Each structure stands twice: as C-alpha cells, then as structure tokens.
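User: Fold this, then the next.

Assistant: Folding the first:
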Amino acid sequence: MERRSALKNMGMAFGYAVATPTLLSLLNSCKDKPAFAEWTPSFLDKEKGYALAQTLDMILPKTDTPSATEMNVHTFIDAYLDEVMPLEQRDFVMMKMDAFYGKVLADSGKSSLMDIEAADIEPALQTYLRKRSDDEEKLHFEAIMSYMQAITEGGSATLDEEISRFSFATELRDLATWAYKSSEYVGEEVLAYLPVPSEYIGCGDLQTLTGGKAWSI
C-alpha cells in the first residue's frame, strides 16, 4: 500500500502541493518578479515559460482580482520545477508538457511557442479540463500508475499522449490554484482573512460569516 501511495503521488506530482515551509518560502520569494513578458525562467526555456505564463492567465485570468501572472504563479511553478521537484517527477512533467504544447502548436499551425496566443491555447484547455467520467478517470489513473511503476523499476514505458495532456492540464490547474490562493495578496485581500480567530463557529452561513468569501489558507 505504501508503494502504491508513493507511485500515486509521483503520477500526480505536478498538482500535488501542501503548505510546507519550503513551498511557502519559495512562493514568497517569487512575489516581486517582473511581468512575464520580461521574465527569464530559471528552469524552463523561454518558449515554454512564455507558453506556461499565457496558459496560467487563461486558467486564472484578471477580473476584479489579479491574474495568475500578476501573482507570479508562473515564476513559482518554474522555481518549483527547478528547486523542489525530484528528477523523476520533473522528467514526467516535462514529457506531459511537451505533449500538451505539441498539440497546441499542431492545431494552431504555428511552429514556435513564442508565436502562440490565448486563442491558440483555449481549445486545448477546453478539451483537457473537461469533466471526465469515473471510468475515464480510473483508466487514466491506472495508465499513469503502470507507466510510473515501470520507470521506477528501471524499465521503459510509454504513456498515451491524450492521457499526458489531460494530466498536465488538470495538474497545472490544481497547482496554479494552490499557489494563487497561497499568495500573500490573495490570502489577505481577496479571501476571508483572520490571522488570530477570536472564536470558533462550527456551523454557520458563509455569507453571514465572511461575506461569501472562502477562508484564506
């Protein structure tokens, strides 16, 4: 069971994050980075960094709250890949990223990720962030488990590119949402924030308690 749990975490690595001191420190270090148009990634190449930043702003666009890149989610994910993620997991993420953006390029008819626009990324996100059936989720999970087991045992394996794209899109969304909600500004200015709660209310109406806002982490 422990081995199965470890493989599961490896398979879902890109979207798996908990509020550890290391990750929160890393997130804090990214808060004053330049806008993504002038950004030079630490780990990703310039093309993938540019595409990633655009994708994040489609997942978390600017509305009455800041966009993902305004909260430097792109710099956090690049640093997370560079400084935190184990090599096996990072290789797996990059394989899935290549499959996702390869599809974007093929469908857009463009040859460089530096040329893609939001309109080129949107169809892929709509496809790969759609709700999947329980049976489809199970098949995807089992395929990823089989792939990771083969790799961790020193063998070779392939993973269906469609599964890779689904996995990349959903895990990117999950990690981006975690990083966004964990940022200082969103935590204190957008979500309901109470540093030292003065009372515990076990059951109450969210609208009454916080004006409808989710609690800050």
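Now the next one, as you asked:
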Amino acid sequence: MVLNDTLVAFSDGNPIDVLRSYPVLDKPATRALVERLFPGAHAEEIGDELLVDALNPPADVVYVGCFPGLDLVCSWGLTPRRPSDLDRSVLAASGRRHVYLHAAHSDAGWTSYGVWRDGERVRALSVCADPGVMEDEGEPLGFERADTDPDELGCASMQGLFGFACDNHDRLDDVDPELIPVVAYRISARS
C-alpha cells in the first residue's frame, strides 16, 4: 500500500471493530454526509470504489463510506497539516462521538493524525522529515514509539487507528481495505 493517504473517520466506538465486520454500505447516507461537508458545492456521484483505492484521492474527488456506527471520508481538501487545524464544521459533520484523522504523504516525508472524543481533541501529532515534529499534543497512543520517522509512524498509525497496514504486514485480525466499499463524488462549485 502507498503511504499517500487521507482518511477521516467518524465513529460511535472503535473504527477497527466496525471495519473488521465488513459492514454494509449505506449509499444514501454518503450523499447526505458529502452535502454537510461541502455545503453549497455541487457533488456529482461518479461511481463506487474500494477503500484501498480511495485513500489518495484526486484534488476534486471525495470518497465516502457510511456504515452502521462509522463514516469514512477520503479528501485532501479536508486534511490540514496539523490536526489542531481541522475545521470545526468537519468535526461536527457526522454527529458521531469520535473523530479520527490520518494523513500521510511519503513524497513530502509527512505524517499527521488526531483523535477527538466527544468533541475534545485528545491526541494530535504531525511529523515531517524537515523540520521534524510540527505538532505534538495529548498523551501518546499505544502504537507510538520513540521513533518519529514519518513513514514508520504513518504505517504504525494506520494500523493502530484503522486496523490495516501500509507495508503488506498481514495479520489475521487486520482489516482488509480491499473489501470496504466507498462512493466517489466529484466536488465542484455551483454555477
């Protein structure tokens, strides 16, 4: 798997538990979520995709998966360099109790992730090859190590937050992003 990804998850509980169950996609809910995330924009449904292929979307495309207890959104337009800069309207878009943000770009040597519980940010970390740690707020999560290499941290955080790895590390309890459906929408300004 590539290390270029952007993923925001809104969850009632642990997203890994929902993803491991290979939940059924609620397609009408995806449109409603897109309309809340991009108010005033035109959202054209352009097809279905699998999560593994949606993690690094084109600039004008958003991939959305809505499932019982979990909503997933892949969109570079929503991903700030620092988790603390995530727009409040994005945090409130789903109404679920927990929000998880993950973004990584290997070409830029950058990884960022954040966790919010009941509207409060409990962890925010953004690491770049140069200048290094750009943001470090809250208690470290269980998967974090002393090493702050962006690529290593990107893989560890993807595994720790969502249950699948980017380095072909297979475990029996891993989530398979090749089996999670999402819907693609092209976002443009209304004419």
